[in-house]
Amino acid sequence: GSSAAAASGDALLNICMDAKHHKTKPGPEGQLYGQCVLWKENACCTANTSMAAHEDQSYLYNFNWDHCGVMPEKCKRHFIQDTCLYECSPNLGPWIDQADTSWRKERIVDVPLCREDCEQWWEDCQDATTCKVNWHKGWDWSTGINQCPQGSMCQKFKFVFPTPADLCEKIWSHSYRASPHHRGSGRCIQMWFDPAQGNPNVAVARYYA
Fold this sequence. Notes:
Elements lengths: L1 H9 L36 H6 L20 H16 L7 E6 L2 E5 L2 E3 L1 H11 L3 E2 L24 E2 H4 L3 H7 L5 E3 L22 H8 L1
Parallel strand pairs: 3-6
Antiparallel strand pairs: 1-2, 4-5
């Protein structure tokens, strides 16, 4: 009946995915660092994870943002925010899917990212450079840090990702989808929000659950 549906819906709310650095259950984290502070009332990340999210080549994934020259700060802050959302948010349950990689059992797929979040990310990163459309796979890891695969060319984001949707949807193999909805609509996930107003993604998860 409807109560069973409601119960399975509730199971998607306020949970942490089973992945490399996530806590088993969300809860308050008083010491979250920097841009991750938005989630301190209720987080899936620890303080250490939040600090590492801000470092280049952090122990989280040994991932080098500067694989084609230094990524500009105004661009990098979006990648930091993307990492904070991924590691800290307890509101991604409706989009958690099985992953068959060595380093995580679950991933997110098609999280509807608010239009402004996607457009601003693209706007601030269009002059940054990269050699790959999908950053999840195909790197040369022979040195222990991701490097551009042989034969690939470094180009500006605006050529690699001609539209904001290309960036948001392709860079992490469809972890996000570019939502037509706006921030505050209750129909899309915000990477950025004002914690003083509460976390808007709680209601969004409930809507999609």
